[in-house]
């Protein structure tokens, strides 16, 4: 006891003898002790939290000091690890703002390492971590790129070391990042190629796991890659000497594909929270030079610490939508009474560009954006980033169609851009539908190559249901309403839709009761003439299966009302209706009138040549309005149908069959009438033989009735 009292008094005297320390000395001592604690080896001495907090307080707020930055670095690391570890589906929307509140630019290495460790420790949470990375990547692309480089590097090292567990976690993370469009589908395709090049039981298992996660996205984004991968799996199943367990896993994979990835969606519905136009895709490959930035994981002194913190504070305010701290309301204010009249006029004057230079620049920007993009996803993302003036959104659509038409051959690249835009927003869908109507009205201005590209573009849009099939209501398929260009356009359009959907699906679409009213112009049934034209058109382009309804309509349609020739009606010598075959050419009708008058003459009274010439000239010069079907005026003639046509060969025999030998003699004597008949025979070169026979039979029947009377 005496010894302890002696020591206490000795230390007390020593402390009293020492002068009191200044604040600077206390701060320096605290910094020294704190630095010793941080640099101590693991397992060093324990410091109570109260003492540690006291040391940090003594260090002060000198942000330029190394100790303060080290303390802030440790706090950043602890905060990032805590936020990443407690994230889940329900709180991801609340964790993300807290994460952006931390300096992720400075701590991007910490964030990447924390996410990779968490994903390796809990693989079921990998989709959540991938969604978190996708959100951060939309605002800070450099963070997402660093994570991808580290993942690829980790996979390559684990593959060389035959570390199956690390390969499984790495490939699963890469697959889900691909599903969220953080990385292109080429990276998982390269991983699959590497794993299946020299297959082993472990590599096949890893490849199957990767394909389960990324298969749905590959089927949608790049089907040829998915098909090639499944062909390789099929070959392994039949040829490779694999373990029963791996063979069974491949069979399960094929069953998953058959079920259309019902239990393995690309993006879970609860995590589908990002708009597609905000996603940023990186192109990283296995053979690329990777920059893992390993030094970003450790603390480094920053001489410009305060400037960097201020810059991130502005970026954070922009990301989180916070109000700017600076208030600009106290700027220049002046009363209007102090302004001169000229100054007021200058402020009120609006400059309007009448040269359309802004429109030209906008079109140039759109064109260069499309041509400089390597994939349709990249092109769509860049196009949506263009600041389009109000009511100028249609320029983007028209430029896309124009760029597609100017290509030498059609590229599906443009069709995929149009499809993606139309499916993103209803505004783009309406603009594309308006563009189709305008495009069809001016289709005759395009060349043949442009017609093909144009038709294939719209065929892709219709086949993928990017736009409604109702737009086909602008098409009127008839001889009068179409041109050669529009018929070529429709041919390529329908053929392209049939190639993509199949004839059965196209027939089903065109026969849909809800949509049938919009296809009345494409499959006309208003008049037999238009119906026949449409049937012949579709049959000539190999689409005869689409004309079944029109053929049935044509068969079931009632025959047109027959009109009796005026001359025969006046003499009351014809009983029953005149067949529809007798509606057509006025010259031949004149022959029928002459023949009827000859039958009515008494025996021995022949018609003179002057009378014959006068009757023929009268018939041939009848005004056009008297030739309308269903309209017969006094003394007028009814034209015969177009089906009655005369062929060039063996005219004498045809005239005998058509007119009879008696009237043929009058024709031979009348040079004018014969000339007109020959000209008519040359002009109408599509006579159907059965039509002539029907006319002959009808004439014989009328003759028999007259003779009987």
Describe the structure.
This protein is elongated. Mean pLDDT is 75; it is low at 323-340, 562-670 and 684-688. The chain contains 32 helices and no strands. The protein has four domains: 2-60, no CATH class; 70-295, Serine Threonine Protein Phosphatase 5, Tetratricopeptide repeat (Alpha Horseshoe); 382-556; 566-623 and 635-708, no CATH class. Helix content is 63%, strand content 0%. The protein is mainly alpha-helical.
Care to give the gist of this entry?
The chain is mainly α. The protein is 63% helix and 0% strand.
- What number of structural domains do the residues give? 4
Radius of gyration: 44 Å
CATH class of the largest domain: Mainly Alpha
Note the gap between the termini.
Answer: 165 Å
Average pLDDT taken over every residue: 75
Shape descriptor: elongated
Per the CATH scheme, the topology name of the largest domain is Serine Threonine Protein Phosphatase 5, Tetratricopeptide repeat
Structural class: mainly alpha
Q: Any guess at the CATH architecture of the largest domain?
A: Alpha Horseshoe
How large is the share of residues in beta strands?
Answer: under 5%
Q: How many beta-strand segments?
A: 0
């Amino acid at each position: 006891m005496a010894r302890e009292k002696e020591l206490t008094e000795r230390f007390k005297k020593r402390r009293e003898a020492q002068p009191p320390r200044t604040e600077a000395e206390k701060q320096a001592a605290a910094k020294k002790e704190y630095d010793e604690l941080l640099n101590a080896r693991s397992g060093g001495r324990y410091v109570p939290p109260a003492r540690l907090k006291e040391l940090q307080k003594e260090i002060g707020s000198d942000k330029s000091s190394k100790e303060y930055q080290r303390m802030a670095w440790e706090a950043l690391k602890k905060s990032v690890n805590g936020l990443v570890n407690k994230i889940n589906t329900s709180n991801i929307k609340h964790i993300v703002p807290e994460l952006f509140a931390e300096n992720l630019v400075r701590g991007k290495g910490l964030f990447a390492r924390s996410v990779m460790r968490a994903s390796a420790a809990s693989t079921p949470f990998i989709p959540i971590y991938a969604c978190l990375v996708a959100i951060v990547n939309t605002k800070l692309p450099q963070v997402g790129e660093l994570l991808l480089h580290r993942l690829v590097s980790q996979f390559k090292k684990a593959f060389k070391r035959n570390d199956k567990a690390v390969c499984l976690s790495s490939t699963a993370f890469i697959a889900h990042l691909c599903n969220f469009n953080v990385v292109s589908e080429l990276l998982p395709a390269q991983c699959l190629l590497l794993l299946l090049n020299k297959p082993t039981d472990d590599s096949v298992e890893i490849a199957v796991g990767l394909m389960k996660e990324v298969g749905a996205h590959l089927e949608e984004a790049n089907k040829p890659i998915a098909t090639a991968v499944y062909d390789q799996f099929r070959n392994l199943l039949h040829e490779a000497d694999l373990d029963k367990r791996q063979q069974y896993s491949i069979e399960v994979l094929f069953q998953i594909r058959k079920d259309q990835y019902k239990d393995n969606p690309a993006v879970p519905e609860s995590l589908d929270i990002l708009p597609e136009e905000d996603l940023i895709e990186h192109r990283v490959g296995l053979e690329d030079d990777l920059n893992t930035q390993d030094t970003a994981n450790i603390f480094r002194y920053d001489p410009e610490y305060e400037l960097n913190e201020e810059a991130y504070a502005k970026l954070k305010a922009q990301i989180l939508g916070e109000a700017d701290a600076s208030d600009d309301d106290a700027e220049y204010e002046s009363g209007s009474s102090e302004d001169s009249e000229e100054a007021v006029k200058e402020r009120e004057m609006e400059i309007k560009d009448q040269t359309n230079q802004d429109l030209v620049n906008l079109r140039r920007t759109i064109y260069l954006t499309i041509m400089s993009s390597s994939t349709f996803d990249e092109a769509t993302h860049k196009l949506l980033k263009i600041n389009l003036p109000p009511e100028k959104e249609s320029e983007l659509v028209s430029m896309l169609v124009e760029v597609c038409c100017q290509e030498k051959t059609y590229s599906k690249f443009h069709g995929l851009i149009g499809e993606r835009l139309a499916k993103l927003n209803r505004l783009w869908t309406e603009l594309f539908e308006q563009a189709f109507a305008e495009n069809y009205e001016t289709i005759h201005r395009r060349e043949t190559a442009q017609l093909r590209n144009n038709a294939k573009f719209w065929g892709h849009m219709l086949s993928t249901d990017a736009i409604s099939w109702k737009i086909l209501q602008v098409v009127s398929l008839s001889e009068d309403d179409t041109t050669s260009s529009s018929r070529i356009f429709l041919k390529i359009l329908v053929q392209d839709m049939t190639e993509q959907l199949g004839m059965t699906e196209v027939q089903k679409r065109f026969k849909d009761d809800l949509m049938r009213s919009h296809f009345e112009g494409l499959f006309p049934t208003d008049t037999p003439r238009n119906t026949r034209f449409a049937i012949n058109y579709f049959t000539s382009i190999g689409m005869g299966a689409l004309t079944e309804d029109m053929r049935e309509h044509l068969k079931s349609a009632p025959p047109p009302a027959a009109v009796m020739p005026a001359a025969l009606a006046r003499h009351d010598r014809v009983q029953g209706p005149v067949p529809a075959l007798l509606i057509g050419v006025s010259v031949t009708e004149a022959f029928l009138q002459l023949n009827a008058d000859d039958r009515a003459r008494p025996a021995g009274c022949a018609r003179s040549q002057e009378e014959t010439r006068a009757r023929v000239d009268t018939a041939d010069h009848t005004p056009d309005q008297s030739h309308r079907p269903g309209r017969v005026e006094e003394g007028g003639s009814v034209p015969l149908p177009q089906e009655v046509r005369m062929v060039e060969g063996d005219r004498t025999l045809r005239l005998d069959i058509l007119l009879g030998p008696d009237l043929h003699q009058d024709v031979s004597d009348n040079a004018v009438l014969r000339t007109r008949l020959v000209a008519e025979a040359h002009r109408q070169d599509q006579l159907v033989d059965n039509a002539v026979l029907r006319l002959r039979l009808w004439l014989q029947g009328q003759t028999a009735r007259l003779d009987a009377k």
